[in-house]
Every structure is written in structure tokens, then in C-alpha cells.
Design brief:
It is a single chain. With 297 residues, the chain is of the alpha/beta class. The protein is built from 14 helices and 7 strands. Strands 3-2-1-4-5-7-6 form a 7-stranded mixed beta sheet, sandwiched between helices. Helix 5 crosses helix 14. The protein starts with 7 loop residues before the first helix and ends with a strand.
Length: 297
């Protein structure tokens, strides 16, 4: 991502969540905000990338639905918010979104958001556009929603949180979605260590990652390999190339080295089977993505 350019992939995932709510029979998320937060000129750029011959009025939806990332975007968000709800029941009152992008939790679930202090951390360019779009929609957020503009490649997580009302001595729930594949392995491990450093024992983090096996063997056969190749071309064209993943078998040890304990690690297919067991929404398990939940030790 360019220093002064908002993340196109963040806006794309926002539009996918909104499309799911509008077009799928039994949506897992009620997210109407993607269509409102993303500027029209960005939608036009994405519409132009739809398959040739697609009618203009459905070109954007067709392109989003065809993405191998579509199902992953939906189920990872639902999983993260389900685990957040569990944490709130246990008394957690801080929700930190690292690489928040155009996440709309505080907008679409204001009742639930009142139970937690929400901290959205993202690159200044992306966050600035999001805040402008919220203002354009004449929407006022509750006082417990905090925006923290930070480039975490240049500033440590602890420093960014220290500029907010975040309370390091109180438990927190972290969501880190759609980010790890754009970072180096070293940067990912540094962020995981930072989470363990800024949150007390028992705090949790949910994050998704790409299976490194598909990076190591880019010519392997199979739907997931083809899907990853397609996604890599797409995000690279948007100026946000995939960089790294994790080997699922190695993840417990890597997390332990960061001060975290792995609780769950599910493939994209497992999550789809869980949330859409009858295939009503026709979500395709095409992405070689996993979602993991870990606890600060």
C-alpha cells in the first residue's frame, strides 16, 4: 500500500460483507455499511475489473462474488465476532482491531458495541478516508469508539495504544483480520509478541493467515492453489501483494515463542461447513486461509 493511498483490499472486503447481506439467502452478517462507506469512484474502479460482457448494473457484485476471498471474508468476520461475544460474557471490555480497515462493527452493532471500548488501529490514509465517509453519512459514533491512526511498520503497537484510552492492565480481545499475508514473517511475529506484551494473561487474539504450503509450492494442483494464485495476482495489481503465510503445523510453537497459546485453528472449509452446513449461501471453500484464536499466557 502506498503511504498516502487508502487500502483497496480493505474497501473490497467491506463491499463483500455488504453484498453478502444483500444477496445471500441466509446472511451470517447484517452489514449494510460497505455500500455506504466505500466511495463511488472506488466502486467504479472495481466494477471495471469485472469479467468482460458483464452487465454494468451487476458488474461490481459479480466481480466480488467471484473472488476466492469472498467466503473467507464472511466467515472470518462472523467467527471473530462470535468469539468477541464470548469474551464479553467473561467480562472483557476492550476490543482492539488491528488493521481495522473499513470494519463496521461499531456502526452496525451499536448495542453490542456499548459493552466494550472499541479501538480501531490502521494506516492514517485508510482510517482518514473511513472517518470522512462516516462523517459524510452523518453518522455519529459512541464515545467509546476510538480511532488510532498508526503505521505499525514504523510505530510499535504499544506506542499506538498508549495514545488512546486503552488500559494495558485490563483484559482485551484483539481481531487481526486480512492483514498477515501482506506482511513478512518477522513483522507478523513482532505483532503477535506486541499483543502479548500489551495485554494481560487471558486476553485473546483472533487472526487469519494463508497456509504457507501454498506459497512454497505455487504450482501445486487443486482449487486452493489456483485460488491463491488468482488472489495473489489480484492484490498485487491493487498494490498490496501477498508476502507470507504460516505452516499450520508450526503455528503452536511460533505462538508459544511470542507468549501466546493456540486455542483453535480452522481452515476456511471447516468454518464454511460450520456456518453454512447446508450450503444455502453457496459459499465456496476456495481460499487456502486459516483462522486462529490464541490466548495470552
Amino acid at each position: 500500500m502506498q503511504d498516502n493511498t487508502p487500502s483497496l483490499t480493505a474497501m473490497g472486503t467491506s463491499l463483500m460483507r455488504a453484498l453478502h447481506r444483500r444477496a445471500d439467502p441466509l446472511p451470517l452478517l447484517d452489514d449494510a455499511w460497505g455500500d455506504r462507506l466505500v466511495p463511488d469512484e472506488i466502486k467504479a474502479r472495481m466494477r471495471a475489473r469485472a469479467p468482460s460482457g458483464t452487465p454494468a448494473d451487476i458488474a461490481l457484485d459479480v466481480g466480488l462474488r467471484a473472488s476466492a476471498a469472498y467466503a473467507n471474508v464472511i466467515v472470518r468476520q462472523r467467527y471473530a465476532e462470535d468469539r468477541l461475544a464470548d469474551a464479553v460474557k467473561r467480562g472483557v471490555r476492550q476490543y482492539v482491531l488491528i488493521g481495522a480497515g473499513f470494519d463496521s462493527y461499531a456502526l452496525r452493532r451499536p448495542q453490542a458495541a456499548r459493552d466494550v471500548s472499541v479501538f480501531e488501529i490502521d494506516h492514517p490514509a485508510t482510517q482518514g478516508l473511513k472517518q470522512q465517509r462516516i462523517a459524510d453519512c452523518a453518522m455519529a459514533l459512541a464515545e467509546n469508539v476510538h480511532f488510532i491512526a498508526a503505521d505499525l511498520s514504523r510505530e510499535e503497537l504499544a506506542g499506538a495504544l498508549a495514545r488512546s484510552a486503552y488500559k494495558a492492565g485490563e483484559p482485551a480481545f484483539f481481531a487481526w483480520l486480512g492483514v498477515t499475508m501482506y506482511l513478512t514473517r518477522a513483522a507478523n511475529l513482532a505483532t503477535l509478541r506486541a499483543i502479548a506484551d500489551v495485554a494481560p494473561s487471558g486476553s485473546e487474539v483472533v487472526f487469519n493467515y494463508a497456509d504457507q504450503n501454498f506459497f512454497d509450492n505455487p504450482k501445486r494442483d487443486g482449487v486452493a492453489a489456483t485460488a491463491l494464485a488468482d488472489m495473489r495476482r489480484s492484490v498485487a495489481a491493487a498494490g498490496e501483494p501477498f508476502v507470507s503465510g504460516f505452516h499450520p503445523a508450526e503455528l503452536p510453537g511460533l505462538l508459544a515463542s511470542c507468549g501466546l497459546e493456540l486455542i483453535e485453528d480452522y481452515s476456511n472449509k471447516v468454518l464454511i461447513d460450520h456456518y453454512d452446513p447446508d450450503g444455502v449461501n453457496k459459499l465456496r471453500a476456495a481460499s487456502p486461509s486459516h483462522i486462529a484464536r490464541a490466548r495470552v499466557r
